[in-house]
Structure formats: C-alpha cells, structure tokens
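Helix-turn-helix domain-containing protein, pasting as requested.
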Amino acid sequence: MSLMSVSEVAEYLGVQEIRVERLERESLLVSKDKDAEGKPLFDKDDVQRYKEFAERIGGI
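Structure tokens follow.
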C-alpha cells in the first residue's frame, strides 16, 4: 500500500487541498492513516479508483 498526502492527492486530482480534506470529511475518500501533523494519508489505489469513478459520473 502506497500512501499519498493531501497535497499529493490534490495535485493528482487537480483540485485544491481544502477539497481533498472535504472529501475525506464527507467519507468520499477514506484516509488510511495520519501524518505527523495529523493530516490524513490516502491509499494510492483508493485515490485512483475515486478519480475513475468521479470522471465516469461527470467530474470531481
């Protein structure tokens, strides 16, 4: 399992970091761990699946 930070996910999805934090808060992206600052870390495979799903339903 490869973990991605909020900033890495934001860059990958092409959105702002605040949007990634909101997706996590709304349980649309589920974090697997927390970093030293308490920010969520996401599984790369989950992020890729979310992006594919979001694109199919009309965008992120």
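Note for the archive: Helices lie at 6-13, 17-25, 44-56.
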